[in-house]
Amino acid sequence: MHLRITTAALVALAALTAGCTHEGGAAEKAPATPSGYPEMQKKVAAAESALARADKDAAQDTER
Fold first, then answer.
1. Confidence at residue 2, expressed as pLDDT on a 0 to 100 scale
2. What CA–CA distance (Å, rounded) separates 54 from 62?
3. Given a cut of 60, is residue 58 above it in pLDDT?
4. What number of CA atoms fall less than 13 Å from residue 63's CA on the CB side?
5. Rounded to the nearest 5 degrees, what angle is found at the Cα of 18, between the Cα atoms of 14 and 21?
6. Three-class SS state of 2
7. pTM (2 decimals)?
8. What is the pLDDT of residue 63?
């Protein structure tokens, strides 16, 4: 009885593994960093800098 349950579990696991893999049956690894990531970091830094300048300008306007 235990052998049948174990066999059924292994067959189900193999089916799920095969269904989750990409072409060729081997799972592909994702790249460590996406392409364009350094440019995205620069844009985020520029946006944060612009936001900080806008906050500073807004604070100066309220002081006047």
1. 66
2. 12
3. yes
4. 6
5. 140
6. helix
7. 0.45
8. 72
3-state helix, strand, coil in the chain (%, to 5): 75, 0, 25
pLDDT at 34: 81
Contact 48, 55 (CB under 8 A): no
Question: Contact, 27 vs 21, CB < 8 A?
Answer: yes
Nearest to 49 by CA among 57, 24, 3: 57
Do 28 and 22 meet the contact criterion of CB atoms below 8 Å apart?
Answer: yes
35 contacts 41 by C-beta, under 8 angstroms: no
pLDDT tens readout for residues 2-48 = 677 777 776 776 766 665 555 555 556 766 788 889 999 999 999 99
Q: d(Cα 18, Cα 46) in Å, to the nearest integer?
A: 44
